[in-house]
Design goal:
single chain; Jelly Rolls; Phage tail protein beta-alpha-beta fold; 14-stranded mixed beta sheet
Length: about 300
């Protein structure tokens, strides 16, 4: 039974990825199917459940900018995939919690390995990653505070009522956007795949545009702006994590949040950096599989798993 459950988790992760119009890694998907005869059978069952669940769901309003997106851009648009019945159906299959803002609690939290989708009345959506928390302002539904962890925002733009995210002492102002915000170890980052976000509109006034990520220590006026492939923004919601010269401490935090498995690093390894890309479902099923994928050593500990880089 545990074996079947791990295969189903992998199948759900592949269902999420292959349902994305921008998906192109068909060779890896084919290799996964051929690795075990049960893979294709369980994947087909998952997709059948998705189709059935999507048909049973009511129509969901598109959370989009005011501008019309040309067909070619729509194909590559993450918003097109996040909106509609597919996410809702996969939410039911994956145990993703769905929550409507009106009448709900003030603080929404997730456990490690859990994801929740928060739907705002105007059609905007917030995908909350594992071990994360947001605080909502009951008097202003266009204001959200990220208290810890990571969240992907798909926002309906309204120039008269801009959407604002507070992250520690920093503020992010939506300019019609899909953007991912992270708060870990007193450092924040915001990465944009569509539209733009203004970082601290009353101070630095930095516009973060698609394909860019801004990082800053909380309480520090300094910041760093770098490039990021737009397809990597919010990819954790599709069951993938990509690390580009990332601190090992951040890698451990991301893996813990996404898989629910406790990953840690020794103090001596905190500032080591690695690069690589992994699917989270296989790592959740077998944490030791992370070793050859990222070129690290994984050893069991009392609380979970330790990551060491060469």
């Amino acid at each position: 039974m545990a074996h079947d459950n791990s295969i189903r988790e992998e199948a759900v992760a592949w269902a999420v990825r292959t349902s994305d119009p921008a998906f192109a890694d068909w060779d890896s998907f084919t290799q996964w199917l051929e690795r075990n005869p049960a893979h294709a059978e369980i994947y087909d069952a998952v997709m059948a459940d998705v189709d059935e669940a999507a048909e049973a769901l009511p129509a969901v309003p598109l959370a989009a900018n005011d501008e019309v997106i040309p067909p070619r851009q729509t194909i590559a648009s993450r918003r097109g995939w996040l909106a509609g019945g597919m996410v809702m159906a996969l939410a039911a299959l994956c145990g993703i919690g769905l929550w409507q803002m009106s009448g709900g609690p003030r603080v929404i939290e997730t456990d490690p390995g859990e994801t929740r989708i928060v739907t705002v009345d105007d059609g905007s959506r917030i995908a909350l990653g594992g071990d994360s928390a947001i605080r909502l302002d009951s008097s202003n539904p266009r204001l959200v505070t990220l208290e810890r962890g990571q969240a992907l925002f798909t926002i309906t733009h309204d120039e008269t009522r801009p959407f604002e995210v507070a992250v520690g002492t920093d503020r992010l102002l939506d300019i019609g956007t899909v953007f991912d915000v992270r708060l870990d170890n007193a450092r924040m980052s915001v990465a944009v795949s569509e539209g733009a976000v203004q970082f601290n509109p009353d101070e630095q006034k930095v516009n973060v545009t698609p394909g860019h990520i801004l990082t800053s220590a909380i309480g520090d006026s300094a910041y760093r702006l770098a490039a990021i492939p737009p397809a990597q923004v919010g990819e954790w919601l599709q069951g993938r994590l990509t690390f580009n010269d990332a601190l090992l401490s951040d890698v451990a935090a991301d893996l813990t949040r996404a898989t629910g498995q406790k990953f840690d690093v020794s103090p001596a390894m905190m500032t080591r950096r690695i690069s690589g890309s992994v699917l989270t479902a296989p790592v959740k099923a077998d944490p030791k599989s992370l070793g050859p994928l990222l070129g690290v050593t994984i050893t069991p500990t009392v609380e979970g798993w330790s990551i060491e880089a060469p």
